[in-house]
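Predict the 3D structure for this chain.
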Amino acid sequence: MYCGVFMRRSTIYISLILFFIIIVVFLSLWFIKKKSFSLGQLAKKENIVPIAVIGSGPAGLSAGLYGARLGFYTVIFEGPKPGGQLTETGYVENWPGVGRKRGPEIMKDQRAYVESLGAVLMPESISKVDFSSWPYRLTTDDNQVINALSVIIATGSAPRVLAIPGEREYWGKGVTTCAVCDAPYYKNSDVVVIGGGDSAIEEAAQLAPYAKQITILVRKDSLRASDIMQKRLLELPQARVLFNKELKRVYGDEEHVEGVEVYDNKSKEISHLPIKGVFLAIGQEPRTQVFKGQLNLDKQGYVQVKGRTQECSRPGVFAAGDVEDMHYRQAGVAAGAGIKAAIEASQFLQRIGWLPSAAKSMSSRFFEPEKAGPSCVYELTSEADFEKRVLRSSKPVIIDFYAQHCPSCMHMLPIYEAVARKFCNQMYFFKVNTINVPQLEERLHVQRIPCFLVFKDGQQIARYYSIMNKGQMIDFAQQFVG
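Done. Predicted structure below.
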């Protein structure tokens, strides 16, 4: 009898002890979490950004739109591809509330609207993040450190490459992933498109007004493109599809692509196609390299989010769009995820006590973009202008070849302007609109844009294709000074 009573009492005591331990642990964790996000930690911080958005495609701009509209100071770091994949798309027919309209125009309109609401857009990339303590530290490509109270990752995805012989050597010399930018350079030429999905047919459609023949090489025995895109392919008389074909090698004369080696995985035969351009459309991979070791990623490299939210493995960090979605991969879905992420970021800020009064008291320490000074970039308008101002220059000269239809070119212009101001006294900086001065583009053998040519003592000494971030552009210019 006494033994039974003792056992019952012991059980009660043990239960009470466990209960108190659980309460203590819970309160400790609550206190630690509360302390981790205390606004007191911002006392000596500069370059504060309540909502920092990394990326400016449909997800990033939608997040920025809602962040700004909800009354939070929001900065969007545009990244290496402003506007995202939609800027390399022809006509879009499934964007809500808009009829058939070109992708670049949709993103241009959305960008303008986001800016009108007060969001700040920075033409820079984030090269490093530190999510180990709060506020979260974001480092830009020119080494500015941002103290972000919340972060929305919308870096999207990047085109895959084949990693075959000749691909890297002829990148920008005939190998590319952007028909929107480069199609005009292949007038009356034979080209190949690699891939069997919607993006491959989209590339072919962009090439159709220019190329003589378009050969689509598909690794499998059927297309995986949607029915509507396959119907669109039938409307391109100069396009043909070759199945069970794999690209094995790209070759040329060191300056231009002249042909490709093709392997038939069914007959095991190898053939050669004489062509001038190779357009890769073999899928995408998430832009998450900078987040490795900072957030939980899945085996394919996509950012993992919790349940039906956009929250990542760190409180106050959210992800939206193709960087976390490998299933839908639609602009409308990405935009919706960006909206969710912004709402969740605002709720996070409210939970940690970021009220209007706090924002007002710290607004003097918010991050602000560098104010642009007078322009140091001048437009070349003719060959005579080039001969006078470039070939007779006493200083090194950089020329930026661009066109308004090229999203990458338009992204580079403000970066080019900023770097020009830095080196204004040591070099001359010019730009050439290839639509207005095609004869200069032809004379200097510019094969794709953006293209940067460097001259010294009247001689061309360097050539660089594709985009650069601000840090890379500074390093590029620096090597020609002194």
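The two ends are 98 Å apart (CA to CA).
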